[in-house]
Amino acid sequence: MNHQFGLDRPLPVQYLSWLGHALRGDLGRSWFTSASVSQSVAQALRWTCPSQASPC
Questions:
Q1: Could you give the CA distance from residue 48 to residue 56 in angstroms, rounded to a whole number?
Q2: How many contiguous H segments (helices) and E segments (strands) does the chain have?
Q3: For every one of its 56 residues, what pLDDT tens digit does the chain have, with 9 covering 90 and above?
Q4: Strand partners, 29
């Protein structure tokens, strides 16, 4: 499991890898649901901002 999540790499390498992916919109996968975190956030924002006419 450590290798699967990249936890076997040094912490600075893990952080820079995460940061590079985050800047491209890839926030990784949830440990609990295995769903894309970016998709989960987008889905939550749709519930928060149901209408495009109303500002968030």
A1: 7
A2: 2, 0
A3: 778 778 899 999 999 998 999 999 888 888 888 889 989 888 888 877 666 555 55
A4: 36
